[in-house]
User: What shape does this take?
Amino acid sequence: MANLKFSDFTAYATTPVTATSGLVAYEGTTNIQFTPAQLAPFTGIYAANGTIGTTRKALITDTIQFRNAGDTSDMLSLNTNGIFTLGLGAVSSSEDNVVIGKDATDREAANAGNVIIGKGANLAATAGAEQYNVLIGRNATLDGNYNTCVGDSLVNTGAFNIAIGSGVNLVSNYSMGFGRSAKSTADNSITFNALSNQINTTNTVDNSFKVFMSSQTTPDLDIVGGGESTLNTSLKITGQAYTELHTGATPADPDWNNGNIQEMTLASSDQDFDPSNAKAGATYILKIKQPSSGAAGTINWNAASATVLWPSPGEPTLSTANNAVDIVTLICVVGGASGGTYYANATLNFS
Assistant: This one.
């Protein structure tokens, strides 16, 4: 058979390969026949490395699967409908999602646009669809829409949230949680937890920004939109700190939320002092100006809801000249939504 061309061999017909069939090889001067049984041990016949020298196209008409040794679970699955999973036991129910990680799971066929990465990461099965989420982390769980969550064992059951950190738990909407076990049940909130060995630092106030650094129950920095904010530490300022001068107030309605320093021009009459939103411990300063013409105005300091206490010899008489300016300083000792109790002192006639 030496030096024979393939075209000189008898063409293969329809007769099946049998146990007596063989593969003939020529080795030097000897023809060698291999039967199917003899070829069976050579399982590495397709295992040699090789190079594809040009472009090749693979047409997939069914699912490509790489299974574990026991043939009980996929390690990689690529379906013609676009569903892709990578990781032992990873499950995806929608072609719009990417699921990567051992036992990572997307359970709802209606889910869309999600990226799930991490051992045991789980897009929870609920009645509604979870859409457009990014979930990254071991055993992280998400049940909501439009969230970005990164961290070990975190839980998110809200929408439009950002959660970053181990054990972060957000059950609110439009919120952000950062740090180990930071938790928020408040909408439109930002929560930072800088504690290394505490859990469940919880923000329950909507529209707030809380930073926990030394206590899991009392934030070191607490900023409440439209409300009262707190800094639980000494504060050193290099530069200036000031409150803006609020103009246009009257004795009848100075609202201390407008500023600690307020300016008012009196009318040519008696007016009762009736402030609001006083805070115990605060210092308030009034710049009181007489009218530019006509009779002078006066203030009845204790005729309304406020209690104003003066040093001896008692309540001062304000300057009476047109455009005269007096400065009254009030230290609040009892606050309240209206009124308040103050220790006061006056410096008169700056005109």
Notes: Residues 245-347 form one domain.
